[in-house]
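Structure ticket #2291
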Amino acid sequence: MGANYTPTNGWFHHWLDFELDSVRRDFDSLAAIGLDHVRVFPLWPVFQPNRTLVRPRAVEQLCALVDAAAERGLDVCVDALQGHLSSFDFVPSWLHSWHRRSMFTHPEVVEAEALYLHTLASALADRPNFLGMTLGNEVNQFSGPPHPDPDLCTPDEATAWLERLLAVCEEAAPGRLHVHGAYDAVWFRDDHPFTPAQVARLGAASVVHSWVFNGTAQRHGRGGAATLHHAAYQVELTKAWAEPGRPVWLQEVGAPGPLIPPSFAAEFAVETLRNAWDCEDVRAVTWWCSHDVPRSLGDFPEREYDLGLLTSERARKPLADAVGEFAAALRADPPAPRTRSTALVLDVGDEEYAPARSTTAPGGEFYEAWAVLAEQGVRPTAVLAGRASDPAHLSRRGIVEVLRPEEVNRPG
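Resolution: structure written out below.
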């Protein structure tokens, strides 16, 4: 159990005025909750302001941050291509305007990204508390609509980009947890070039970002089974494409207001975490986020200001107490999830490209059938239509009952 680190001193702009003592105090406040890791976010334009320059001083500051975390018993995952954070894009000037090039397909840009990732990963490779690299935060949002100025690419081009940069990370820091993370268009948007197959097959683990403001809480309410099981739902979606036993990292999950009001945030967190840890192969959960965004910073969506476990003054919220108590219980008595023996058939067309994946989105046929099963107390998983009649596959996953969405008994 960990947290995505949002610094109290200037949010992610703290890299411009880096103060290690402030970082230490932030990490003290997280260690006091009982968390064991953080995910941190270098700002790409700050670290690589020119295509051929990765600033040595910025890398030194990142190393100092990782060392400060180690002193407090915290492991660290480092995201690189920032990329997109809380509605703001941070992309270097050498990709803009007169230098407009695609971050996914232009050869010089991809080599520059490889240089950046290799520099960070190799600088951290000998630190025991360095978990590994995430290529970037939800960079798939740059690849198509609704981004206002996307770097369009095809699924095959996205796969090639992911494979190239993950290989760079592995070369620079062998054996670490190198992954890629995507926002939920990867599951829910038919024409999105980043695909479920990429999530479930590339990198050292399948990464899930789960947010109930995507239509889930709007349709099912703050306490609905679909809302409280949404993270578990996305975890189980990964299983449809993955080899049995592949690790899953719930890398982002939070309690977004006003759909999840502060008075319900602690209960929402405990139920969400309990349901996620009930899934097999979940290895880590990282809460979004550590500290609130200071109200002195302008132009954030309203929900972004209050997502922290702690305030921007490091005061603990009831949410922090709930997550901390859950983390302590997790360590004292690790869960032993039971195999999910009931599988709902997921028909998305071609397995590799998933052209009909919107059935898994809120309101989609598969999604709503899964929600009904969860409401009924069933612990469903997902199986691709092309594997639903494969006895060997079903046996390997412990599946004994297969249901199609139209076979689920609906209320009323």
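Closing remark: The mean pLDDT is 97.
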